[in-house]
Amino acid sequence: MNYKRLDQNDLKTIRAIIKEEERILYGEEINEEYSHDELSDTVSYPDVVVKVISTEEVSEIMRYAYENTIPVTPRGSGTGLVGASVAIEHGIMLDTSLMNRFLELDENNLTITVEPGVLLMELAAYVQDRDLFYPPDPGEKSATIGGNISTNAGGMRAVKYGVTRDYVRGLEVVLPDGKVVEFGGKVVKNSTGYAMKDLMVGSEGTLGIITKATLKLLPLPKKAISLLIPFPTLEKAIRTVPFIIKSKSIPTAIEFMQREVILDAEKYLGKKFPDSSADAYLLLKFDGNSTEEIEKDYANVAQICLEQGAIDILISDTNEREESIWKARGAFLEAIKGSTTYMDEVDVVVPRGSVNEMVEYIHGLYKEVDIRIKSFGHAGDGNLHAYILKDDLSEEEWENKMKAAMDKIYGKARELSGQVSGEHGIGYAKKSYLMESMDPATVEIMRGIKRAFDPKNILNPHKVCQM
Amino acid sequence: MNYKRLDQNDLKTIRAIIKEEERILYGEEINEEYSHDELSDTVSYPDVVVKVISTEEVSEIMRYAYENTIPVTPRGSGTGLVGASVAIEHGIMLDTSLMNRFLELDENNLTITVEPGVLLMELAAYVQDRDLFYPPDPGEKSATIGGNISTNAGGMRAVKYGVTRDYVRGLEVVLPDGKVVEFGGKVVKNSTGYAMKDLMVGSEGTLGIITKATLKLLPLPKKAISLLIPFPTLEKAIRTVPFIIKSKSIPTAIEFMQREVILDAEKYLGKKFPDSSADAYLLLKFDGNSTEEIEKDYANVAQICLEQGAIDILISDTNEREESIWKARGAFLEAIKGSTTYMDEVDVVVPRGSVNEMVEYIHGLYKEVDIRIKSFGHAGDGNLHAYILKDDLSEEEWENKMKAAMDKIYGKARELSGQVSGEHGIGYAKKSYLMESMDPATVEIMRGIKRAFDPKNILNPHKVCQM
């Protein structure tokens, strides 16, 4: 594609649209953080960062960019892990973080309509204060809701409540040519044409720019309790999961964790984890509207765990203990990052019944490829996070060993009928693995879909399925 | 489009692919039922009906049809209401009803993989016998699961459990050119490229032919109980719904019904409805794993209903009573059809908070347009079914009045931020209403998506967004 390089004339038009100079960063004014995201080593600067505050501004910028074939990259908090919000072709970066208003809480329809820059933690707190509940709970609470929608973020409550897509009812979207459309709405059911809303969710800023989202809420469950369950081995822990899933007591979360990652978290947080009796744990959470209801559920599941070889059942029924456990869990990514010089991640998802095989395989790679790999993840939904650590390897050793480990992990995931990403997306960094794992016919259709939205390929080029 | 008209040569190739002559119907051998669906007045015969039994057959037929630009229409049980399975351009009809095998029940992953011709009632019974649960529950139990997926069928348990899309994990799809691809899989979470699985669901046989579906199951709830709640007026009944939704006791179903429709059902079934005390009812269902749990839920909701003016709370806790109520509910469509000479339907969905306004508006049309209209529907999810009755009107009067009523109903739904179809789809019959209600930019993108899958437009032409 022959993109137009941004010049002073373009900047003049942008200034005319945006009016407030402090919302435009150009050249040297652009902070280093705008050149990358939270993890991937994809680095590229936009020519200009525009901090938009309205749908109209987004629409006008897009119309101008479309007419002039200037690439545009949308960005929220920049907490992504796969380079989806990096401006590979430079051009305009649309920072949506100032579009952070709560527009409407509709208690009759149990929906909330927000701008895309609202942070996940702000949204969760806002609805909780009103006795309502937004279930998706990814680890990164300072991500924007626009970013969560763009990656179809999953998180820790997916076992019981599903993922972000399940809570998006309607979207206002600015198309690459600047037109403003609505997909879905407040309606609960919809069989009206193709699933445009669902297609937008998880499209990583390549099909349109989300400027408003109407989200489904639930009544806030009155009680929650966690069980921390030590097992003699990780294998025994994970083998227990299908028995839990089949029981009629569905937890909101089933996480697995190992001592080595817990140690990192203790060091990172400067705080002891509440138990040190075992090498492997399952962490379960239950919620409901009465203590009795939850107690019945967890007693049932505790029994299953003991039958499958659990060492003990630690019930976390105080806020303090609850916080110390989940804070550790929430800190895993940062803690592992802090334990090494550099790292890269895989976010494979495999059928629940194959988690053990996948985890064991990843463990075996430590020896086979001779590189440190730490993992944790969502045992209840088959989504594993494995982090490959650079430590003191040379650049060349790192590149070779990291690529070898990645190839093997993604290959194994394919063998187990898994997918490249459970919740982090493809972005820029995982594209080659997507191409390897996906039928070429499907890739061709995805590119056709991209063309249907963005025939000039100006919106977030080189991401997902675009080479 | 210039389609090739099917000739003897094409028939010879089809015979070579299919081999068993009794699975090919040609010309005069084609039963009248293949020329239409359950309701819409769209009538057109295919040139040949092919009863396929395998993915390979579907693939070979599609490859041949694609190479020769012969239109193909997929069809399950033909229970649709909007003409989606009618062969407008003639050509080949692929009848998938013989592809009705249960391929795998995976108890570790709680999934079942079936062929598209399995009937909804067969699927429900099969998993129930194994203490498992497939929640989607549309009224038409003899629809195929392939048809349910193609319309993203909703049904009566959507309030608590969601719709068909929420239970489709993976699909095997034959593309228009004959290539076989898989979208999704057994994985629970997926952020790997665009949402192809979700896009296929609800695409009404226009993007590909579903040849296998992996569906999510739940553990079977141990108990269910229904409440039949008479109200003095329909308005009072429907005004109660938002209070129920906001309570922490979510029913699986919230249906509304009126005496006039119940009378039709009594006549049709030859069986008395268990109550005759009121003109309007809410019908609620609760499920769970213990009687106490359900009792607490329904006691809570019963209290809400009484506070909002319900006349009584009739608890259906025997199988007999349960059956007599839900059998009446299930018979509404057929019963209304039997009460008139001919009818057409609307399946609008509006935000839950606007159901009352929509229902009142439809009632008012009876006088305004001077035509009988009967309605019932899913109060809990805003999806209304209204049937416009021909009775003894002349063809001309019928056309005029029916169109006038439809225009007004769809216009009102738009005004209330509703959508054309909640669960029946667009097919052929509702296309003009889709075009009126949808942004032209969105229609253009949908057509681009269609082109990405089917550049020669041979698969189910003239449906959904194709003129």
Describe this structure in words.
Two copies of one chain form a homodimer. Chain A is 36% helix and 20% strand. Chain A is of the alpha+beta class and 467 residues long. The first copy, chain A, folds into four domains: 8-98, 2-Layer Sandwich (Uridine Diphospho-n-acetylenolpyruvylglucosamine Reductase, domain 2); 102-219, Uridine Diphospho-n-acetylenolpyruvylglucosamine Reductase, domain 3, CATH 3.30.465.10; 223-329, Alpha-Beta Plaits (2-Layer Sandwich); 340-425, Alpha-Beta Plaits (2-Layer Sandwich). In chain A, strands 15-12-14-13-17-18-16 form a seven-stranded antiparallel beta sheet, with helices on both faces. A five-stranded antiparallel beta sheet of chain A has the order 5-6-10-8-9. A four-stranded mixed beta sheet of chain A has the order 1-2-4-3, covered by helices on one side. The longest helix of chain A is centred in the last third of the chain and has 21 residues, at 395-415. Chain A is globular and about 70 Å long. The first copy, chain A, starts with 7 loop residues before the first helix and ends in a 14-residue tail after the last helix. The mean pLDDT of chain A is 95. Chains A and B meet through strand 9, helix 6, helix 7 and helix 15 of A and strand 9, helix 6, helix 7 and helix 15 of B. Chains A, B: It comes from Anaerocolumna xylanovorans DSM 12503.
